[in-house]
Each structure stands twice: as structure tokens, then as C-alpha cells.
Amino acid sequence: EKVSVIGLGYIGLPTAAVIASRGIEVVGVDVSENAVNTINQGKVHIVEPDLDMVVQAAVTLGKLRATLTPEAAQAFLIAVPTPFKEGKKPDLSYIHSSAKAIAPVLEKGNLVILESTSPVGATEQLASWLEELRPDLTFPQTAGEDADIQIAHCPERVLPGRVLEELVSNDRIIGGMTAKCSAKATELYKTFVRGECITTNSRTAEMAKLTENSFRDVNIAFANELSIICDKLKVNVWELIALANRHPRVNILSPGPGVGGHCIAVDPWFIVDSAPEEARMIRSAREINDGKPEYVLEQVKQAADQFKHPVIACLGLAFKADIDDLRESPALDITQKLSCSNVGKILAVEPNIKTLPQKLTDADVELVNLQQALEQANVLVILVDHKPFKALSSNDINTKVVVDTRGVFSRF
Ligand code: SAJ
User: Fold this and answer.
1) Which Pfam families match (predicted)?
2) Does residue 304 contact residue 312 with C-beta atoms inside 8 Å?
3) Any alpha helices (H) in 234-377, and if so which ranges?
4) pLDDT at residue number 47
């Protein structure tokens, strides 16, 4: 049996490696020559704990290889990005390109799984693209259970930083276009998933994934709104949340500098786009979370105003604690905007990276270590709760003005 994984990024590569580690032949396909070459050398082009070992083992055993163009296989698993375009509209162009890439090699009896987070209806759209491209084959939207090709949506739900563990242990939603599609997809996931595989239809599976991330976004927005209300009312929000969470049915999340990453800040917009009139709370949560960096910026400017020569150290650039991923990071955004607003000298501390991204070097931000930041800065801005920052003592900071967006120094 051979499985083809289309898109070898943060989801596709770990999934390909885990399936290969079960002894199944896996061919990974990516448009990036660099990714393909790196993987074929048994190395990885993305950072995720233990991924390098699993990929190396699979490549060495000859179970995993990467190519630029798809070849025939029994199952195709599509894990490509679904970003949004201007106007917060979902961009399905990578799914469309994947359809065009696999269509020529599709054979009767194949299974096609869409793993990419997608707006409701995207799996049906993928099926009709494939049907147009291969009129000689039959597809579930017209042939039902008798279709030559089975199609399902099985959204990924793994947490960056714990991908290899969660790939195996999380329950999986299997949204087949027919019951037969679900059964076939379940068979594939059962080869490596220890969690339960729960079947539904493709539209419900699409909406379930969007709902999970919107649930988290709405709850973070609640915490972020509370933090702004508490500043106004001179209440410590961290103490407040700790107290409220003592209630058996209250569990408030943590405020922060905004919501980053490429999932939670994106997926709720897919729901808003599908039901703009109805998705009022989901839209509002997005706006609250997107507005938080601007609020933090104002706080830092006020802190800097107390000094003749402000030196501002931004602690953390990643989108969350203890990872090196700077994509869609509010911390990065705040640091860059600070630098462009001429409030003072800007230092950045990010223990998980070695060089600053171009947009910060262009903005004259200097990458320093934590010690240097403590020596030079009079304003500290805690943007990420990385472990070394949590280990700081009050002696380290008591001569500084601190803007603590993560509550690192407010332990309740
Ligand atoms: N954040 C807060 N306060 C909190 C929790 C998170 O401000 O209390 C911020 C983080 O700092 C970060 C952002 O939210 O900037 C998102 O971080 P996260 O850890 O909540 O989630 P992601 O984006 O790393 O991964 C999410 C996960 N979804 C859920 O937990 C519902 C993961 O399971 C999904 O697979 C992933 O999105 C995805 O790919 O969709």
C-alpha cells in the first residue's frame, strides 16, 4: 500500500513521517525544491520536537521519500495551507492546485482526504474540481456509494510543539462525503491514531474544526477584554481570573498581547465569511483580539514617556511560549511598530532564534540576550511567557518599568 501526502509543512510532514513509521510506504509531495531535497536527506526544514528523528528513521528505512510531482498511490492526503485573502475571504487556491496535481494520477479505488482547515463546503468543492478534471472517473457527489473515488475531510487538530504526540493520541473527526468514504478514511487513520475515530459528514467535520478554534478565540477575547476593563478599574486581572477560576464552572483563559499563529487568528473568519450577518460574537472576538497589540503599544509608549532616553527591551517575539515560530506573532508586530514609532531604542530578546527577521533589522531593532537587556533597558515589555522570562526574580526587574502582557510577574 502507498500513501501520498500533498504538502510537507507543519502538518503534512509529521503526518507523512508517522504513517511511514507504521511501515506504510509514503511519498510526500511539495512544491518547494528545498523541502523535497532536505527531506530526502533525512532532514527537516521545520522546527518541531522529535520530528527530525522520526523523519530520519523513516527515510533511512526507505519508507518515506519526497518528490515535486505526485505519482499513483492508494490514498492522497492533502495538507496544504488555506490562508485568507484581502477582505478575510478564504483562499482555496492551494487546494485547487493540489486537485490539479493529483488528478492525472488518480485511479479507481483511490481515497482522497482533505486535512487542511477549510470553510464549510470546501470538500465538496474539491470533489467537483476533481470530477471536472477526470470525467472518466465517478465521484461521491454524483455516484454516491458507488463512486470510483472516495473523498473525506479529516481536519488536523494538533498543537504546535506537541504535534507528534497529538497526531497519535487525539481523537479524529472523519467527515466522509458518503458512509463508505468515512469507512475507508477511518481504515487509514486507524493505522496510526490511538484516539477514537468519529465519523460524520464532510460539512460537519469542516465546521467542527472551525468551531474548535473559534471557541478558543472567543474565550481568549473574553480574557483580553477583561484585562482592558481591569486596567481601567485598577484591578489586577491575573488575581481576578485566579479568583474567578476557583468557581467550579468557571475557567477563564489568559489575556495576552493578542492572538497569533496561523490557525486561531484565521479560522474564525471562515465562519464569519460564510454567515456574516449571524456570526456576531465570533467577529467581535476577532476584532477584540486583533485590537490588543495596539492597546499594548499605547501602554509601552506611556511607560517610555517617563524617561529622557527610553531603552525598551521586548521580551519574546514568538507567537506563544517556548517555540521559535514568529509567524503571525503579535509580539513581533508590537516590537516592529514600537521601533517605527520612535519611542526610544528597541532591544529584542528571543532565546529561541539566532537571527532577527528582516523586518526587525530593517527597523533598527537589536537582538540581545536576556542579561544584556536587563543591563541596558529601563522599560521591559513581556510579550511571551518563555521559560527563562518566568524564571526572572523581582531583583532582576525592580529598577525597571514593566509592561507585563502575560502576567509573568503576577503569580496568583
Ligand atoms: N493565547 C492567549 N491566551 C490563552 C491561550 C492562548 O493569549 O489563554 C494565545 C497564544 O499566545 C497564541 C494564540 O493564542 O498567540 C494561539 O495559541 P494556542 O496555543 O491557543 O493555539 P495554536 O494556534 O498553537 O493551535 C491551535 C490549537 N487549537 C485549539 O486548541 C482549539 C490546535 O489544537 C489546532 O490544531 C491548531 O490551532 C490548528 O492548527 O488549527
Assistant:
1) UDPG_MGDP_dh, UDPG_MGDP_dh_C, UDPG_MGDP_dh_N
2) yes
3) 237-244, 267-274, 280-304, 330-340, 358-362, 370-376
4) 81
The Cα angle at residue 41 between residues 36 and 47, in degrees rounded to 5: 70
- List the residue whose alpha carbon is closest to atom 29 of ligand 1: 213
Find the 70 Cα to ligand 1 centroid distance in Å. 32
Per-10-residue mean pLDDT for the chain, 412 residues long? 96 98 98 98 92 97 98 98 90 98 98 98 98 98 98 95 95 98 98 98 98 98 98 98 98 98 94 98 98 98 96 97 91 97 96 93 95 97 97 92 95 78
- Catalytic annotation present for 263: yes
Give the pLDDT confidence score for residue 373 in this predicted structure: 97
Cβ-contact 200, 117 below 8 angstroms: no
**pTM metric for this prediction:** 0.94
Interatomic CA distance for residues 61 and 364, integer angstroms: 47
Write out residues with Cβ below 6 Å of ligand 1: 117, 156-160, 212-213, 216, 220, 253-254, 256, 259-261, 263-264, 319-320
pLDDT for position 34: 97
Q: Domains in the chain, please, with CATH?
A: 2-195 (3.40.50.720), 212-404 (3.40.50.720)
Q: How far is CA 116 from CA 133, 146, 285, in A?
A: 21, 26, 23
Could you say which of 63, 184, 209, 292 is catalytic?
209
CA pair distance 323, 326, nearest whole angstrom: 9
Cα 43 to ligand 1 centre (Å): 27
Return the C-alpha cell found at 161.
Answer: 510543539
Catalytic one of 263, 292, 314, 320: 263
pLDDT at 227: 98
The minimum-distance atom of ligand 1 relative to the CA of 261 is 23
Q: How far apart are CA 273 and CA 269, in angstroms?
A: 6
The Cα 180–Cα 199 span in angstroms is 11
Pocket test for ligand 1, best of 80, 170, 263 (most atoms within 8 A of CB): 263
In which residue are the cell numbers 499594548 written? 296
Cell numbers for 243: 479568583
